[in-house]
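Lab intake sheet, docking and co-folding queue.

SAMPLE TYPE: protein with bound small molecule
LIGAND NAME: zinc ion
LIGAND FORMAT: SMILES
REQUESTED OUTPUT: full 3D complex as structure tokens
PRIORITY: normal
SUBMITTED BY: R.K., bench team

The fields below were copied directly from the construct record.
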Amino acid sequence: MKLAGGCRCGAVSYRSDSDVQVAVYACHCQFCQTWSGSSFALHALLSSEAFVLQGPTVEYAYEDQGHTSRHHLCATCHTRLYNTTTAAPGLWVLRVGTLEERSSLSPMAHIWVKHKQPWLRLPDNIATWPENPTPEEFGAVLNAGQS
Ligand SMILES: [Zn+2]
Ligand SMILES: [Zn+2]
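RESULT FIELD (auto-filled):
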């Protein structure tokens, strides 16, 4: 599907010109909770070449378990749009809440559910992992359900 999105204030937008494969998952880790100010984060994995981005962004980079993660935010309103990580070269890890199509994209997996909020009930038939899945396990689930 073609995708488009942007930040809260409108200074930054992105869109794909062709159909892109998108895999959505929810992360319940405590970093995602803190970072989002919510109970979990919804991430979409996409090819970094899928999108053209317009507008000024700022970057926040940090080291995590031997990998470098670079987060890209609107320079004006500081909406976090996506990050890249050296653990998954060539991919954008996009914040699904910045997509116009977010209502039609549901997660295929939930990770770090050992930190899931106790009031949140997940569907019985969805893949979950207490922490990070292995790349092989994760890839098998995400590739099976790509839209
Ligand atoms: Zn903005
Ligand atoms: Zn997380």
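REVIEWER NOTE: The radius of gyration is 15 Å.
SIGN-OFF: pending second check by T.M.
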